[in-house]
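Worked Example 4.2. Consider the chain below.
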Amino acid sequence: MFDVFALYNRPDDVDLFNEHYASVHAPLTRKMPGLQEFVWGVAESDTDLHVVARMTFADEASADAGLGSPEGKAAVDDLANFADAGVTILRVPRH
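Applying the procedure from the previous section yields the following structure tokens:
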């Protein structure tokens, strides 16, 4: 298994971010080929992070293919529409 985590910094307009993420970005992400599981949530702790998402693929090659697909590129391109506070992407193989 191979996970890709997206750690989104807290935006100035949380409501606008949440609306866009739930109605536009999450559905784009779910369309990626090879994606086995996609979960996300809003951080409840007092931190600079706002949303944490996990995308699970069978292996690293599947993750690369999914992220490099037209659907994956659409999700990556969408970041410019709402993630102006920044996002960190972590690629994590499971052991």
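Helices lie at 14-30, 60-68, 70-78. The mean pLDDT is 97. Compare this with Example 4.1 before moving on.
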